[in-house]
Amino acid sequence: MRTTVEAFFRQQPEWVYFITGLIIVIGLVTIFILIGRAAMKYTEKIDKELGFQKIQRELHDTKYQAAIHQDISLQTIHALRNAERFLEQLQQARRFSVQAEENLQTYENLMIRVVHALSSDIKFQPGEQHRSAVWIEEAEQLVYFTGSNAFDDRDGNQILPMNDTIAGRCFRKKETQLVPDVSADVDGSPSQNGYGALLCIPLSEWGVLTVDAHHAFQEEVLYICRLYARVIDLAFFEYSQIIDDGYIAQQF
C-alpha cells in the first residue's frame, strides 16, 4: 500500500504539488481570516458589555451624588426654617414687655433650643453624630454655659483654658477655627468618644460656640453653624442687657 501511494505521487506533475500547496495556503489564510473576524466580533461584544457596565456605574454614581445633594438641600432648608423660627421667637421676646426674670428665662431657653437643634440640623448623612456647646468668657477662661444632649454628663462648671485650647484660640483671635483633626492641631488633644473634628465660632466679645464631629465637616455645615451662632449671639446680647441693667444678678 505504501509503495502504491509513493508511486502515485511520483507520477504527478510539478504543477499538481504547486496547486495543492496553494489551496492549502489559501485554506489556512481563510481559516485565519474567519478566526480573526470571530475574535473581532467577540472583542467588540466584550467592549460593548464593558462600556454598558461603565455607563451603568456612572449612572449609579450620578444617582448617588444626586441623592446626596438632595439630602443636603432638604436638610439645609430644614435648618433655615428652624433659624427663621428662632429669629421670630427672639423678635417676640423683644417686642412684648414682661417681667425681667421671665425675659431672662426666655432668652436662656432660646439659646438652649438653638444649641440642641444645631447638633441635629447639621446631620446630612445617616450615622453622623455631632455635639455642640456654648462657652462664656469669665476671668480669662471659657466656662460651659449650655450644650446638646451629648454634654449631659458634663459638669456645668467645666472650664476650658484660654491658652492651649482651640476654643480659647478662637476667642482670642476672634476667628472661626475649622479643625478636621484635633489630634494634629497644636492646641488640640486626642479625640474623645470618637469626636475628631472641631468647629469653633466666636460669639462677639463674650464667648464661643463649639461643634464636635466624628469626621471632617462638610462645607454646608459651616454656613449653618454661622447662622445659628448669630441667633445665639443676638439672644445672649438681650440676655446680657437684662443682667447689665441690674435686674438680676446671676453667676455662670
Automatic annotation (TrEMBL):
<feature type="transmembrane region" description="Helical">
    <location>
        <begin position="15"/>
        <end position="35"/>
    </location>
</feature>
<dbReference type="InterPro" id="IPR029016">
    <property type="entry name" value="GAF-like_dom_sf"/>
</dbReference>
<keyword id="KW-1133">Transmembrane helix</keyword>
<protein>
    <recommendedName>
        <fullName>GAF domain-containing protein</fullName>
    </recommendedName>
</protein>
<keyword id="KW-0472">Membrane</keyword>
<keyword id="KW-0812">Transmembrane</keyword>
